[in-house]
Design a protein that fits this description.
There is one protein chain. This protein has about 80 residues and is an all-beta fold. It folds into 2 domains: about 50 residues, no CATH class; about 35 residues, no CATH class. It contains no helices and 3 strands. The chain has a 3-stranded antiparallel β-sheet, with no helix packed on it. Strand 2 and strand 3 form a beta hairpin.
């Protein structure tokens, strides 16, 4: 399932907590409603094998700290990548 992020309106994967039964955005290893560790979650970029820092492309907006995702846009601000000339 997916839901819209309150901050950026992008779609976010959701999970149902086995303890409180709340449907929450899958943003980390714990339910942010009750604190229970989630049984099913998406592998975060910090976990080994998922993300190689040497392959990242920083956002071309000088004030953003995000990186360009596989769709060619910044994962933080949503701006499309513009290579330096």
């Amino acid at each position: 399932m997916t839901m819209l992020c309150d901050q950026c309106s992008k779609e976010v994967e959701t999970v149902v907590c086995s303890q409180c039964k709340g449907e929450i955005a899958n943003l980390g290893p714990f339910c942010y409603l009750c604190g229970k560790e989630l049984e099913t979650r998406v592998q975060s970029p910090e976990e080994p094998g998922e993300f190689d820092l040497s392959d990242r492309v920083p956002c071309s907006d000088g004030s953003c700290v995000g990186i360009i995702n596989e769709k060619g846009v910044c994962g933080t601000c949503g701006k499309p990548y513009t290579p330096e000339t």
